[in-house]
Amino acid sequence: MSIKEIAKRSGASAATVSRVLNRPDYVCRDRELQNRIWEAARELDYIPNHAAQQLKRGCPEKETHRQIDVFLTRFQTLEEDIFFRELYEVLREILLQRQCVLHRLLTLPDMISRSKNISRAHPADRAPDGLVMLGKCPPELLPFLKKQYQNLVGIDRNPTNFDYDEVFCDGSRAAEMAMDYLISLGHRRIAYIGDCSYEARYIGYHQSLMAHKLPLDYSNVYPTSQTRQEGRQMMRLILEKEERPTAVFCANDSTALGVLDALKTKRKKNWLPSIISIDNIREAETTTPMLTTIDIPRREMAHHAVALLLDRMDGGHRENVRLEMQGRLIVRDSCSYCA
């Protein structure tokens, strides 16, 4: 499919489309335009013609177009978790750069439906070459997925028990990093807003308190499914308390955005808590105050996940591989010393 057709669909110039799709080092200033270009490319099954580029340089390479499905394991849409939406955008780019076709984006309801109706699949349908899972695969679906896909890789904040190839950034270590920073600023009453059901980030919150010989006060724990709306609701509950924490640790940036929303609409005199979270989504740089957070290296995780997937397809490895990436503290304006 030609560059001109993608340019027509996306509203970009042919030159801009070519730079976005064929130059990995190019950064488009208009993020929305870049997303439209990639979406048009995906819809048209565009593959960068690296073989032709190599031929011009006198070193032809074999062209392979592999079909890859992406499974969003936890949410029904990408809009429900900004981190996974940005991770998906990066993954989409890397797949195309590696001459792969992003076949389908599947959600949990999609997979459950497919597992129940597998007998209805048409025998002529081509099975995708691989599956990238964004988030941890529900255990009950894993046997079905292993039958449907010979090649699997997961990207998440928490590791599995070597059930499949995976690239992860340990959520418990990221949480400890966030908590240790708050405690270094003198904070002792620190609230947690996030998932508490065997969640690594909650475990990291607890472990950091124990390491610093601080008590776990369950009145400062606010279980949520980690959305912006719930972050807003939980902060409103905290605002109604007489004894409030001096700092709030949010399990992800989406939750922290909701916390900041609540603080904009209602504040208590002489009380402004420090806010820290995990992910480092793009919006964290534009909030007021700018959000201190733990960076999860999305591009590197997506890059290594695709490399693992293609290596398995090529027979490079058979045993399941676990690759851990390191989080990084990004200090901005939302944290300060405890008064």
Protein architecture, described:
With 339 residues, the chain is α/β, with parallel strands linked by helices. Among the domains are: 1-63, lambda repressor-like DNA-binding domains (434 Repressor (Amino-terminal Domain)); 171-296, 3-Layer(aba) Sandwich (Rossmann fold). The chain is 40% helix and 17% strand. It has twelve helices and twelve strands. It has helices spanning 3-10, 14-22, 31-43, 50-56, 82-97, 108-116, 142-148, 171-184, 200-211, 228-239, 253-265, 298-313, and strands spanning 66-72, 100-107, 130-134, 152-156, 165-168, 190-194, 221-223, 247-250, 274-279, 292-295, 322-324, 328-330. Helix 1 packs across helix 3. The longest helix has 16 residues, at 82-97. It is globular. It starts with a helix and ends in a 9-residue tail after the last strand.
Topology, element by element:
Layout: H1 3-10, H2 14-22, H3 31-43, H4 50-56, E1 66-72, H5 82-97, E2 100-107, H6 108-116, E3 130-134, H7 142-148, E4 152-156, E5 165-168, H8 171-184, E6 190-194, H9 200-211, E7 221-223, H10 228-239, E8 247-250, H11 253-265, E9 274-279, E10 292-295, H12 298-313, E11 322-324, E12 328-330
Helix pairs in contact: 1-2, 1-3, 5-12, 8-9, 10-11
